[in-house]
Amino acid sequence: MRGICIDFNPPNVGTIWPEPADPTPSVQSIPPDDTVFCFFFRPVFPYMRDLYWFAANFYSTPFGGVTYEEGGEARFDAARMDIGLDDGNYALFRPGTLPELASQIGNDWLDLIGLRCSEEEAISTARQLSAEQGDFDRYVVRNTELAFHCMDGFWWEFYPRDPALLEVVTRPLQGVPGVSIRSGVSIRSCDSNNQNALFDPNAI
Question: Which of 19, 141, 165, 185 has the fewest CB atoms within 10 Å, measured from its CB?
Answer without folding.
Answer: 19
